[in-house]
Amino acid sequence: xxxxxxxxxxxxxxxxxxxxxxxxxxVQPSCTVATGTINVTTVSGMTYKLDGGTAxxxxxxxxxxxxxxxxxxxxxxxCESPITTVLINVAPSAPTAPVVASSTNPTCTxxxxxxxxxxxxxxxxxxxxxxxxxxAFTSVAAGTYMVTAKNAAxxxxxxxxxxxxxxxxxx
Length: 171
Prior knowledge:
Layout: E1 22-27, E2 36-41, E3 47-50, E4 60-64, E5 67-74, E6 84-88, E7 100-104, E8 112-116, E9 123-126, E10 136-140, E11 143-150, E12 160-164
Antiparallel strand pairs: 1-2, 2-4, 3-5, 5-6, 7-8, 8-10, 9-11, 11-12
């Protein structure tokens, strides 16, 4: 047996996995938008995947449903990063319409009152005015009013209509 001379072969090292993506910001759902948005700090030459889906160059994932989601970065060699987990909250819901506990019509000498059953953590508004923690509205003239409730998330209920009759005529 003859043996040939050796030929040197140099193999390039395996491409490294990219670092886990850095989340720049998360926009959680609101009273008016039921989905969230995830913004990744982009790195040149990388693409990004949401929940193992199709890779995209943009670092913005919009209309993301509530729940736990994974973001990965993919480099030009196709190597995928470790995951970064992001939680999108459930959209807050509007409170129920306020319940009128009592109302008093104006008299010849006094203005009327409207009182709604106050619920802890809620604020109340009369005809779109400033919100207050009390469910009592005093010095209210005769007329038709709308009372709304607002919760800590800023969601506003549908209105409850209250009508205060005019004061009886003077003698």
